[in-house]
Amino acid sequence: MAVDLSPSMAACEKDAEALRFIEEMTSNVRSVQQRVLMEILTRNGGTEYLKRFDLGEEDPLSAFKAKVPIVSYEDLQPEIQRIANGDRSPILSSHPISEFLTSSGTSAGERKLMPTIQEELDRRQLLYSLLMPVMNLYVPGLDKGKGLYFLFVKSETKTPGGLPARPVLTSYYKSDHFRTRPYDPYNVYTSPTEAILCPDTHQSMYVQMLCGLYMRHDVLRVGAVFASGLLRAIRFLQLNYEQLAQDIATGTLTDKIKDRAVRDSVAGLLRPDPELARFVTRECSSGDWEGIITRVWPNTRYLDVIVTGAMAQYIPTLEYYSGGKLPMACTMYASSECYFGLNLRPICKPSEVSYTIMPNMCFFEFLPHGDVECDGKAYSHDELVELADLEVGREYELVITTYAGLYRYHVGDILLVTGFHNKAPQFKFVRRKNVLLSIDSDKTDESELQKAVDAASQVLRGAGATVVEYTSYADAKTIPGHYVVYFELMSSNAAISNNKVMMEECCIEMEEALNAVYRQGRVGEAIGPLEVRVVRGGTFEELMDYAISRGASINQYKVPRCVSFTPIMELLDSRVVSKHFSPRCPTFNPNGRVTTTTI
């Protein structure tokens, strides 16, 4: 669907300028991309890494495309480690590395250190500055209220060489771009900056929730980075509403909030409000949490959360808490390596979300997905496609070259081209590559596992139950090995987890939804029956707390869809309340013949 970004439709002149910039960038994709690559090679041509490829001065762009290989993080790890240990020579970037941005560590194992430079903050801020001008086209009047956003930082660490190492959002929130941002009526938060910057997650969440309750009639949008973060905030309200109501009734702040800057930041807001305290108690003690967001914050226009990719499984729960009345806006596409683009139709169905790549952010290349079956080291230069040459309907793997010193870096995201805005491709995020369960020759990725969980959810929905959270692992200890999927359920019927018939139906429906190679393995007895283990409520919050205690960022944390780390598996197994196995093999159709086997 075409998007009209005419500056004449802008809410103000500042918005009009932003819309003109988007139109200029997306109308000149090829020339902007060539300029970006030339700027990167000109400034970084003297680095140790690029000098290895002898790009020359006559035609560095062609030399780059012919000589520089596609790399993974593991390929760059020796250079990154040298920088982390204190080597200040121009290894990857001619500009000084200012800090390392850490990955969340939940997508593909241990956390990674992504080198960055100071000016990258300007590029990230530029993309942020485009979000509200687009949103204002769809939701007018946002300057008349505030946003309740649950945002958090993590205490940073230092590398052996003394450089900060922290998540990308912690870097941004601690920067002057965020801390000393000028007043913008379209971007006012209920949370004081001091609360957002508080490293103690409980204190930060408490004060952000308290401010949101005091200003509940001013709130026009509610959000967090990921959908899981907003659900964690609702869970926090469930567990702490009594203390919050008490503080509101007395106009005081609990002694549990120790951070002096945080306490000072809300001193002017606190006032006794017995009526509001009674309202909070009444709404939260009734046991009815359906539509709680729109009841507590009645003027909310939309939820601002990422619900694409692995976050899609939170959509039913968010719909429950919002009463099915609020759109879910996914506004931007970004990673620790680079910020990529934005959603030009933010108020659309989650299934229709497409992100428009902004060609000024870095140099983009793409590997047609499905054409090769090897890891990043074996890819051929000839397979790479540039941003301006992509085809609608095809899936690609993202490869980037950044100003900060990543060259033809294989990000691991798989994207589907859904269309174009002017000359800029628009993408649906499909999945992260290589998030797999495997017992034999079967390979189940994240999107296939999500499809299977959706099938089980359909069964549970008929009984008024919902899958709140899930993860899995391939159990190779049994003979044959089998898939184990952990479910945390939400239901008014506590006995649902012990309903043997229903839970077994969930198991078989999941197997029927998995790919043909898996089902063939089941029929051929190379794979054992799928097992669902139901864990008690709150288990996945404990899992998140455990991950945060080991260094994960609350902003970037995503529940790992496959686990193998022994302490995590022990935690999950210690919370299991019931176990269920698929009662039969799924159907498999070799040569047009359906085979069904009963155990």
From TrEMBL:
Domain GH3 C-terminal: 448-565
Source domain of life: Eukaryota
InterPro entries to which the protein is assigned, alphabetical: GH3, GH3_C, GH3_M
Pfam families recorded: GH3, GH3_C, GH3_M
Keyword Ligase carried by entry: yes
Keywords carried by this UniProt record: Ligase
Annotated ranges, domain GH3 middle: 355-432
Molecular function terms from GO: acid-amino acid ligase activity
One of the record's GO cellular component terms: cytoplasm
Signal peptide segment: none
Family of the protein in this entry: Belongs to the IAA-amido conjugating enzyme family.
This protein's name: Indole-3-acetic acid-amido synthetase GH3.2
Organism: Acorus calamus
